[in-house]
Specification:
Immunoglobulin-like, 5-stranded antiparallel β-sheet, single chain, 2 domains, alpha+beta
Length: 163
């Protein structure tokens, strides 16, 4: 009988410790502003806001209470496009001005070179490591492109809102 009580008590302790570990993990993750990964899709683009996969030695790292680090993966899920430009911005409380986070685009001197500025279905753009202030509650991703190298400009804006 005593063995059964001790075994039951041990099970309760182990289950309690496991629950505390889960709560600790949840609390750790809750300090990050945006619950990632977050995926947004349009007819042309799939955009994934996520954690930084791997920190290289010279990469910026998050600073608690100052900024968190994120990655952005943009995939062309639509038709072939040209001269893609992707920009990221964050808001700042009590300001109408947005702060730039990153910009990815074809260099100006290569924009008219059809094979260089062409992005087929499945092409990916990766911004692996960018900081976002802990005061921000919104990330705006603006994607512009052309359907033909000399054609009209198109734009889509996606918003990632703080949890």
């Amino acid at each position: 009988m005593i063995r059964k009580i001790l075994a039951f008590s041990l099970v309760l302790v182990l289950v309690g410790m496991g629950s505390m570990a889960v709560l600790a993990q949840t609390h750790k993750d809750s300090t990050q502003l945006f619950r990632v990964p977050i995926t947004k899709e349009t007819g042309q683009w799939k955009v994934v806001l996520g954690d930084v996969e791997k920190y290289e030695s010279k990469m910026a790292k998050p600073q608690k209470g100052v900024y968190d680090m994120y990655s952005l993966n943009v995939t062309n899920i639509g038709k072939r496009v040209y001269n893609v430009k992707i920009e990221g911005f964050r808001n700042e409380p009590n300001s109408v001005t947005k702060h730039g986070l990153f910009k990815m685009e074809v260099p100006k001197e290569l924009r008219d070179v059809k094979d260089v500025s062409k992005y087929e279905h499945g092409h990916e753009f990766l911004q692996n490591n960018f900081p976002v202030s802990v005061n921000a509650n919104e990330i705006e991703v603006v994607i512009t492109w052309k359907e033909d190298i000399k054609g009209r400009d198109y734009k889509q804006t996606l918003y990632f809102i703080k949890k």
